[in-house]
Design a protein that fits this description.
36% helix; globular; Transcription Regulator spoIIAA
């Protein structure tokens, strides 16, 4: 396992990145209040790991976030997603707190911006893990 923890005095341990050699999956866990600059830093750290350790599955866990998620969906779709796909990502499980972003995200056509890989939204970490396991075959 390879692990990287991103922290600041204002947002301790705001992003934990864990690459699991078996099953070759990157898990990014966010917690607390994450500002846009911190979110960009975490997204870039994920790309750094993916480039060093290509894998097809990424689990993005937002269940411990407080407040709104950063508003850079276009940046994620236009910049981050192509780079992640180039690093081998084919399946992304995005886990949100129950009753928050999932309904809005799925009901909105913005999720169609991600064409480089399949993305599914979950409000259960266990369901997300099961889906990624089924994607690996």
């Amino acid at each position: 396992m390879i692990e990287r923890l991103l922290t600041t005095p204002e947002s301790p341990h705001y992003c934990r990145l864990r690459y699991l050699i078996k099953p070759r999956q990157l898990t990014v866990t966010w917690q607390g209040h994450v500002t846009a600059p911190l979110a960009y830093e975490g997204a870039q750290a994920a790309l750094d790991i993916l480039r060093q350790h290509p894998c097809c599955c990424l689990l993005n866990d937002n269940t411990a976030l407080e407040g709104p998620w950063f508003d850079s969906l276009l940046w994620l779709a236009q910049r981050w997603a192509p780079a992640a796909a180039q690093a081998g990502v084919r399946f992304v499980a995005h886990v949100v707190r129950a009753g928050t972003l999932a309904t809005t995200f799925v009901a909105s056509p913005t999720h169609l911006l991600f064409t480089e890989f399949e993305i599914q939204i979950f409000d259960s970490l266990a369901e997300a893990e099961d889906w990624l396991a089924s994607c690996r075959g």
